[in-house]
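Why does this matter for the project? Reviewers at the last site visit asked to see concrete outputs rather than summary tables. In response, this paragraph embeds two records directly. Each consists of the residue sequence and, immediately after it, the corresponding structure tokens. Nothing has been edited or filtered.
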Amino acid sequence: MLGSDFWPVTIECGDLVLRPISRRDKREWAEVRQLNAQWLAPWEASNPLPGGRLPSFGEMVHSLNQQARQATALPWLITERRPGLAKPALVGQLTVSGIVWGSAMMATLGYWVDRRCAGRGIAPTAVAMATDHCFAVLGLHRMEINIRPENGPSLRVVEKLGFRSECLRPRYLHINGEWADHRSFALTAEEVPDGLLARWLREGDQSAKAP
């Protein structure tokens, strides 16, 4: 699936909207990231090369959109409709990356959410929305999420959504200046025949909402 059939795409659930990231989002994105600098720092990807740096916002958007055009990524902003606002407010970011077609039909999902919105079910709802799109619309078979063992809030998200804990990957990604272990979680389409979002909305109120 290539071209406009694959991307851009916007998906919605109630007041929550996943929409494509663009260069026009620079100011709002930077403001939210600055407010969450300490909250996100322990989980922030870093460049292991000597003197390496992370891409600028423009470079990130260009790279993500190029990957989207190649049908290997889905770069969304997580936004929320709020009374009195002309457009949904930015509350996080979710990227489906490393999409592999052919016999694998799989992808990896990563996300972050504004700390001020924590505890309201935004992260699990967004993850469920994106996973359902990948399974039901794109026909992918497997979704994987890799999380630092120390990242309690993110661990609660995948546990509440029913992602299986598969393994520990030692020194898997370069995070906050060092190679860090990650726990790998996965879900296949057969495990959620009626959709992950429907299951989360049906069962989520029976337990504490994850941030």
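We now turn to the second protein, recorded in exactly the same manner.
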Amino acid sequence: MASLSSILQTPTSIVSSSSTSNSLNLQQKGFPFLVKVDRRPERKRSFVLKSALDEVNVLDPPPPPSENAKSELIASLKLKLLSIVSGLNRGLAASEDDIQKADAASKELEAVAGPVDLSSDLDKLQGRWKLIYSSAFSSRTLGGSRPGPPTGRLLPITLGQVFQRIDVLSKDFDNIVELELGAPWPLPPLEVTATLAHKFELLGSANIKITFEKTSVKTKGNLSQLPPLELPRIPDALRPPSNTGSGEFEVTFVDSDTRITRGDRGELRVFVIS
């Protein structure tokens, strides 16, 4: 058996992994096993790094999306929404499932784009906007969630294009509706354009309040030479409680060519610039 002094005098033979002769000497002197310690710096660093990763999982936060990536995502979500509502005849042909899909697609677009602030950029509303979808039209009345003439056989009214004409300087807000009124045979149907004139004001950053002023009707086609007819306004005392002559809605998304609004009665509307 090796003495304690002989062991202390040969520490390098125990820790060296490169000397074969020293290893054999240790085994001949009675050591039943050989202890090998790898002291290469790179191995030690690898061991420490692996231990740290095994004990603590640290994930770096993902980088914020670039402006280009956000713009591409918004364009994709807009296309998705327009594809959903394009075949619904402005909402008149929408089923309950169609309404839910349009609402979900709108919310997805609104979430990515973020809140609208018109207080510093009201010019975004300027122009003539074409209505391509209204969730309220699924009620089968031209007034949507408000009282309006029904569509169908009892009163043959065909809804044409619907526009909103907004002037941010004069605060004019006109709803323009093209209608085709059925007439007894052999008379042709009567084509008219009804303009519901309003004034608007901005409430907060994205809420719009409109106040009704008057309605004028202009004939089209063979009768287009007739002057516009201004319909008398119903006195406020005779108005039903549901038709006060004013309304509010929130602009939840707007850019250079698309606008989404949500009305005070839950009505979702989608417009494109015309």
